[in-house]
Amino acid sequence: MSLNLIDITLTYPDGDNRLTALDKVGLEVPRGSLTAVVGPSGSGKSSLLAVAATLITPDAGTVVIDGTSTTGLRRSELTDLRRSTIGIVFQQPNLIASLTAVEQLQVMAHIDGRKPGAARGRAMELLDAVGLAEVAGRRPHQLSGGQRQRVGIARALMNDPTVLLVDEPTSALDHERGAAVLDLIGRLTHQRSSATVLVTHDRAHLAVADQVVEVHDGRLLLPATARGFG
């Protein structure tokens, strides 16, 4: 098991009270599998992803990544854990305008303490895996929306994470490009044996997922496929 959320409860201040974002949520995501998380806006999907990424500490419950419980870890230890085991694909790729596609990936190696030049081979391998080797030298303004999103996916894989967290990757793409991006995420999940959690509003392509769950009012419901969504 690569990612295990156990009885996660998360609340936020709401005036004199507290608003429950996640209510005793449990989720297991094995390596080499993709779990899609669906649900209406404000249901708790983004909160679930933030907790899984160790960006937010829950009020109660445990996050276990590769057999390591994050409970009680210092901030520096959580940062090291994210850097070494977690890849995050954001809703907007937020690429650096002055960097080429391959440099976007190389800078991740620099953050991890490795020389960007030494990581070029790894970066080119990943760009090839997402079908972008031929545009490695182009900057973001020279790429289509789908290509920029694929650069973001490759960047998230640069440090070979065991957990891949993906936030609404098709929100800015048309139907065809969105389907291609989701298919790519599914293929890379299985090829690279990552435990992938995909938050998506796009129910049209849920067949790419090994497991589909729905979040509603902070609770994890029955698999969405069993409820007629898949």
Strand order of the biggest β-sheet: 6-7-8-3-9-10
Radius of gyration: 18 Å
Output the CATH class name: Alpha Beta
Which bin fits the share of residues in helices?
A: 25-40%
User: How would you characterize the largest beta sheet?
Assistant: 6 strands, mixed
Beta-strand residue fraction: 25-35%
CATH superfamily: P-loop containing nucleotide triphosphate hydrolases
User: Outline, from the CA principal axes?
Assistant: globular
Query: What do we call the CATH topology?
Result: Rossmann fold
Average pLDDT, rounded to a whole number, is 89
Overall SS class: alpha/beta
SS field, number of helical segments: 6
Order of helices and strands: EEEHEEHEHHHEHEEE
- For the terminal residues, how far apart are their CA atoms? 24 Å
Question: How many domains?
Answer: 1
Q: Give the name of the CATH architecture.
A: 3-Layer(aba) Sandwich
Per DSSP E runs of 2 or more residues, the count of β-strands stands at: 10
